[in-house]
From TrEMBL:
Gene3D superfamilies listed in its UniProt record: Metalloenzyme, LuxS/M16 peptidase-like
MF terms in GO: metal ion binding; metallopeptidase activity
Protein name, per record: Putative Zn-dependent peptidase
GO biological process, one term: proteolysis
InterPro entries: Metalloenz_LuxS/M16, Pept_M16_N, Peptidase_M16, Peptidase_M16_C
Limits of the Peptidase M16 N-terminal domain: 36-151
Record domain Peptidase M16 C-terminal: where: 190-367
Signal peptide location: 1-19
Originating species: Dysgonomonas alginatilytica
Keyword presence, Isomerase: no
Family: Belongs to the peptidase M16 family.
Length: 436
């Protein structure tokens, strides 16, 4: 009984923390279609400025993959008013830091400065949107940068080809079937005019959201935003093409060899719904039950009890159109992938047919409460959340209400969703092996 009260007390504490974290924001749209979200927080003298463009690997031509990731790099080359090679120097000289990243659905740029440098951050991002220099020197330079990144992260890295193999087996029609880094052959073959056309189509104000989060004066920020972004011309409307995959009804078996590994890996991958759907959130909870730390079911069974695996886990790759749920394990010396598959099947079958315990359910709730608080604990985290909720989910209010969705998920729902999506005939089984 004492343990019950302790757990309940921790739940109340975490609940209070979440309630106290309610995030106030305001939003408006400029005449050119740029959506703006402002979130003022004067608790620390820093401010994050971010721009998320609704363009990712899925928007590429199948014969020209890698463009969105390429532009993540290219748009740091310089602008008409920021000389080539000076972007990072300006950041550092003014106490700032920033970066960018790309995935299948969007490209994201951000800077965090001391709060007295908001005007500089807004000017820099407006320069990136309106006045980038896209020339042959920059294209040639960034081609080599991307090639080196691919060599380091994929070609010469242990398990570096993993995600690429999963994607091409899970998807046959959707552009999710290729990795965001794309094909080096496609980038080599692309002309300067093709790169310019890609920029003109996607990197426009009406295909983006600008977020300012942190310590700033709202009235002044609005004036600067209007001055720097308001004159950028609206682009043509971006029409997203829809791709529908046929359901997986028979287990897909695949093998891949990797010269960079000595230990094989077993993977089970399932194609699941868009991250916007409730079922995808339920599957996130299922992932935590299976692999949320060393007390999770897969780890305890495969690593601790049966001593079949060095490591075991699962995770969700949440995306706008479809997501992927992946279970993996690395065998101990002398153990086989089929032995591990039997145990994985047994543990997944339990989730499909039995309710998780009340104790596991409470642990889940605490984990998701804590993750929610951590996600929005900094201006960078808040800026990213606001941008993504607007651009990909279509609902900025989720920054305060999504946790309620997780709170409302029941043990029965966890069982039923597992049974709906985690059937053996709906998966890819991939043996990822050392190259012979």
């Amino acid at each position: 009984m004492k343990k019950v009260f302790i757990a309940f007390g921790l739940f109340l504490i975490s609940g209070v923390a979440v309630m106290a974290q309610h995030i106030e924001f305001e939003e408006f749209t400029l005449d050119n279609g740029l959506h703006v979200i402002l979130q003022q927080d004067k608790s620390a003298p820093v401010v994050t400025t971010s721009v998320m463009y609704h363009v990712g690997a899925k928007d590429e031509n199948p014969d020209r993959t890698g463009f969105a990731h390429f532009f993540e790099h290219l748009l740091f080359e310089g602008t008409e008013n920021i000389p080539r090679g000076q972007w990072d120097k300006i950041l550092g000289a003014n106490g700032g830091q920033g970066n960018a990243n790309t995935d299948d659905d969007r490209t994201y740029y951000y800077e965090t400065f001391p709060s007295n440098n908001l005007q500089l951050a807004l000017w820099m991002e407006s320069e990136r949107m309106f006045h980038p220099v896209i020339n042959q020197i920059g294209v040639d330079t960034q081609r080599e940068v991307v090639k080196e990144e691919k060599r380091m992260r994929m070609d010469n890295a242990p398990y570096g080809g993993l995600w690429e193999v999963i994607k091409k087996n899970l998807f046959t029609k959707h552009p999710y079937r290729w990795a965001p880094i794309g094909s080096m052959e496609h980038l080599d073959a692309a002309t300067l005019d093709e790169f310019k056309a890609f920029f003109k189509k996607y990197y426009v104000p009406n295909n983006a959201v600008l977020v300012v989060a942190g310590d700033f004066d709202t009235k002044q920020a609005k004036e600067w935003i209007t001055d720097y972004f308001g004159t950028i011309p609206r682009g043509a409307d971006v029409i997203k093409q829809q791709f529908v995959e046929d359901p997986i009804t028979t287990q897909i078996n695949a093998t891949h060899e990797d010269a960079n590994i000595q230990i094989p890996m077993l993977l089970n991958a399932y194609r699941i719904p868009s991250m916007k759907e409730r079922d995808a959130r339920v599957l996130e909870m299922i992932s935590s039950v299976l692999s949320g730390g060393k007390s999770s079911r897969l780890y305890k069974r495969l690593v601790d009890k049966d001593k079949l695996a060095l490591e075991a886990g699962s995770f969700n790759l949440a995306e706008e159109d479809y997501s992927a749920y992946i279970v993996y394990a690395l065998p101990m010396t002398g153990k086989t992938l089929p032995e591990i598959q039997v145990v994985i099947d047994e543990e997944v079958a339990k989730l499909r047919t039995e309710l998780i315990s009340e104790r596991e359910y409470q642990k889940l709730q605490n984990q998701f409460e804590n993750a929610y608080v951590s996600q929005n604990a900094t201006s960078e985290g808040v800026a990213h959340s606001l941008a993504e909720y607007y651009l990909l989910y279509g609902d900025v209010k989720l920054i305060n209400s999504e946790i309620d969705i997780y709170r409302s998920i029941t043990r029965e729902e966890i069982r039923d969703v597992a049974n709906k999506y985690l059937q053996p005939n709906q998966r890819l089984v991939l043996d990822y092996l050392p190259k012979k």
